[in-house]
Here is the input.
Amino acid sequence: MSTTTTEVVGGQKVRRTKRRVEPIYYLFLLPSLILLTLAITIPGIIGIFFSFTDSIGIGDWSFIGLTNYVAAFSDPAILQSYLFTFGFSIATVLVVNVIAFMLAVGLVSRIRFKTGLRTIFVIPMVISGIIIAYVFNFLFSNSLPALGTALGIEALETSLLANPDLAWVAIVAVTAWQAIPGTLLIYIAGLLSVPGDVYEAADIDGATKFQQLTRITVPLVAGYVVINIILGFKGFLNAYDIIVGLTNGGPGTATRSVAMTIIAGFNGGDYAYQMANATIFFVVAILISILQLSLTRGRNAF
Amino acid sequence: MSFNPQKVARAVAGSLALTLVSVGLAGCSVGDGREPVRFTFSKREAIEFMTDVVAKYNASQDKVQVNIDTSGVDVVSASFVRGNPPDLMLANYNMEVARFVERCTLSDLSDTTAASQMKESYQPLLDQYGVCEGRQSALPFSVMAASVIYNKEIFEANNLQVPTTWDELIDVCEKLVAAGVTPFYATLKDDWTVGQGWYDYTVGGSIDVIDFFDRLSAQGADVGPDSETSFSKDFAEPMDKMQQLLDDYINKDAPSRGYNDGNLAFAKGEAAMYLQGPWAFSEIAKTSPDLALGTFPLPMTDDPADRSVRVNLDLAAMIPEGSNHKEAARDFLEYLFQPENIEAYNASQLGFTPTSTAAAPDDPRIEGMIPFIDAGEIYQGPSVLVPKTIPVFNYAQAIALGGDAGQYLATMDADWARLAFRAPAKKES
Here is the structure.
């Protein structure tokens, strides 16, 4: 947010080189800047600093150079948590965007009970993730197996969460369930911004509804798709509460996300090592952002 | 639904923290000339009891005002980082707390009366978590003993004796299966129940845990498939036996059952044996208050003398070096360790009092463990002796669910070696 604002201020500076910039703009920036510095930048730098030490968060510490990084790169648990996190994020982004887009198209068309349906679909957004996770945990562990037993479907008789190869499916499903409303709202806003006359023109030209969807709607809301994918991916990379509530990283270590690994380090007195992990994650996240921005820069169409 | 009781306790404590902090602040501002002592205690089940003790102490003298703070382990850790530790901690003694010991942030308690009363067999257990040279950093206050909980009614109905060897155990299981009774109720969904029960009991019954970890530490970064001591080598047999038991003698839906499901099912008599600690008794009693239960250590070898009981230092007292009220805190510490107080506490929680004079708690449910405790046939769970960085509970759960034990043990070896590689060089003791 602050970056955009800076650019605007900068832009005005260029245009009105002769005139003084209103100091009020800097004043607007100040609260965010102070908070960002105090709450994110300084702790971040301190954290990176400690990743080169053997600190456990308290007491004496000494510099150990790159040892933490060397150990982290050869740690299969950390590697696995990255693979899981990225796989999970990509799967969830796809599921969330496809479903949310289809729902949005349905909910802006002329159907009955539109407002009521919109309200219902948005409800998951206002429930806390950990509560959703515990409720679904119960459903997966008890209700679904009971249903499976009653119907004689053997695949459902054991809990999805107890299967190391399939537990991620449950996590994707629950995360998607919670994330779809937010994405849905952005898509609805996007779809409503498409002017009606282009559809009228398409109707006159004899385009089918499906052609209208693929040739008109999708290209015109492409910018929103990009936003949703970037925001969604960023959010899912930090997945934590839903996984804790559903599997707590299990069965075994099948569903440990990067965030969980890092936090386990705080609780377990392994502060410096997980700070190194966090630093690596930070760099990876920046690389992904740069990639995403360069792929989508200045484009609001595919 | 399954909740890790520690997590829930933490969540509850967390939400209480704010209220208590504000209450605490209000308490400070009154200021009646007494020296304030911030006393942290967050064992959920005993907060009421301890609040009473504090009130009695405050009423008994007029020099010190003890304020109980129940905000939990994480808040205490954070207060150390901020340089504002509590004046007295009574906390579960584990790897999380042990780092305060290793970095010498706790004051020496060796010259207290309480220290002189301590039963000596507990010193090695304290030392397993780390030592600050020349200091008695912590004093055990309450010891919990855990072993197999069994349903006496089912055992009697089937004419079964408590097994003392591995073969007898298998025999008991076979007879139960033949009688249509599930031998063990397992709750594999909650990884900590696998860790503290299946993993710890099978390993602790098979090997000398203290000796194993001594040898493992000595090897440091060299631990691996070829080293003399390793998880792969020493734990292979116990894990194999654990999988045998889990393959044939547990409830079918174990992978999707959690701790609370287990307490309920066991209380209803759905299985004969249950690998849980004494904390489960009160939960079971909620459903079946009169169920006759007993305990026995899981026999893992053919020699009855190898049996031993898993203990943990459920509470230990510590006074941080950074406290500004150390003398006042010590006064309250001595009060806590007075025989009538420490013994009353342990009697209320089914804990063992770690003083040399105290008698074991009088309860038929833990009777089966008393001879082992008295004889010092005890070990601390190998799942809690490994730094939290290594997700032992998760590995144990994976093995319990039928994973390749050899592969997971090798992973643990590699994790251990990596940890030793980046750990600061330990001072030789």
In short: The two ends of chain A are 24 Å apart (CA to CA). Chain A touches chain B through 44 residues (CB under 8 Å).
